């Protein structure tokens, strides 16, 4: 009997308002109206904070932490992929370092290493290496409005706790006609299994 009860979702209007403000912020950001987009993004955050509603982590990552501008790479955000370079094994093992002297280069003549690299580059003009992103790379987004930088790990195995299935306690589905939400328990909820009476 208790399982068939419907729970009224009292903050439906807050969800719809936050959704509208987030969509408006994205639309304004695509039209290069960044100040208005940041204002709508900040309003979206403030509405959620006041109503004590949490924004999904995937949505949070798309907003700038400082000015709440929707981060759209190529439109209002600079996107840089930084890859960690492996340290040679001699440096890891604590090998001795050689003191290398900087050689002066004559004007107009390239350095020895540069000349060799240019010569080998001209030989293999058609054979260009494709760059791949490794698991240790970091994704850096720089906001175009406030210049705040955000870094994200590219590792596919790392994920936010809230996005894992075992973190899900309950799913609330919205019924548009009645304005009521049905409460469902999933098989992978955090609750301990109990024997049915």
UniProtKB/TrEMBL annotation:
Keywords: Metal-binding, tRNA processing, Zinc. InterPro entries: Rpr2/Snm1/Rpp21. GO terms for biological process: tRNA processing. One of its GO terms (cellular component) is nucleolar ribonuclease P complex. It comes from the Eukaryota. Residues 86-132 are annotated as: Disordered. Residues 117-132 have a biased composition (Polar residues). One of its GO terms (molecular function) is metal ion binding. Residues 94-110 have a biased composition (Basic residues). Belongs to the eukaryotic/archaeal RNase P protein component 4 family. This is Ribonuclease P protein subunit p21.
């Amino acid at each position: 009997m208790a399982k068939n009860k419907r729970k009224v979702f009292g903050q439906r209007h807050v969800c719809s308002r936050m959704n509208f403000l987030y969509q408006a912020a994205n639309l304004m950001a695509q039209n290069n109206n960044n100040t208005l987009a940041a204002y709508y993004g900040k309003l979206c955050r403030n509405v959620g904070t006041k109503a004590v509603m949490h924004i999904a982590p995937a949505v949070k990552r798309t907003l700038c932490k400082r000015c709440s501008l929707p981060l759209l790479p190529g439109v209002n955000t600079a996107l840089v992929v930084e890859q960690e370079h492996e340290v040679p094994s001699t440096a890891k093992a604590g090998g001795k370092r050689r003191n290398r002297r900087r050689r002066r280069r004559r004007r107009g003549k390239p350095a020895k290493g540069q000349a060799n690299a240019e010569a080998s580059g001209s030989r293999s003009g058609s054979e260009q290496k494709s760059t791949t992103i490794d698991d240790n790379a970091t994704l850096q987004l720089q906001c175009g409005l406030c210049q705040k930088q955000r870094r994200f790990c590219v590792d596919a195995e790392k994920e936010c706790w809230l996005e894992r299935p075992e973190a899900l306690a309950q799913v609330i589905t919205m019924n548009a006609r009645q304005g009521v939400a049905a409460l469902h328990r999933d098989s992978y909820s955090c609750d301990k299994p109990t024997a049915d009476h």
